[in-house]
Amino acid sequence: MTNFVPIFPLGIVVYPGEQLNLHIYEPRYKQLINECHKEKKLFGIPSIIDDRLQDFGTLARITEITNTTPDGEMDIRTEGDKVFRILEVIKVQDVAYELGDRSYNQGNHSVDMLMAYLPKEKILFNADLYSPPAQGAAPAAPTPGMRTLQQNIRKLKLDVAQHAPAHGRVGTNEEFMKLVAPASTARAN
Questions:
Q1: Which of 19, 44, 167, 175 has its CA 20 to 30 A from that of 139?
Q2: Pairwise CA distance, residues 169 & 165, whole Å
Q3: Is the pTM value of this prediction over 0.70?
Q4: What is the DSSP letter of 163?
Q5: Can you list the domains of the chain with their CATH numbers?
Q6: Of 28, 8, 13, whose CA–CA distance to 129 is shortest?
Q7: How many CB atoms are located within 10 Å of the residue 65 CB?
Q8: 88 pLDDT band (50/70/90 cuts)?
């Protein structure tokens, strides 16, 4: 059985049973920690060694939020739970240059984005390119990151049924295509 967990890559190795204090300040990680704490979910800490995401990491649980600032920064205590393995990672590149259309540029992210695809399950995991809106919320306008993801799905010929983002809920590919298709159609006209 394959499980999806939000990931928080760090330049350290965390061991099961190890206690680790973290200061959370980036908006995406503040969201990740808030969601995991609220839902009592584990999150993954894969190691980054020599600027490379490693194949293994440790699942961690939040044991305590010790401090929260007015702008949402947090000091948290965590404990390593068990080792996990990243099954497959596909390097996703900004396809703006290949398409000759700078409007596909994914914004302020790096040219490489983390995406993992499980072909048997037809599940696509991505880090920060697309997060389905919360249940009942109005759909978001397509972003450059979403268009980049759509182009990479096409380029790599991925048969996607579900999107599992690093943050937020799992959504269907049908939802995703409804969000990005109008922008693509308008661009083609």
A1: 44
A2: 7
A3: no
A4: E
A5: 19-85 (2.30.130.40), 90-188 (no CATH)
A6: 28
A7: 14
A8: low
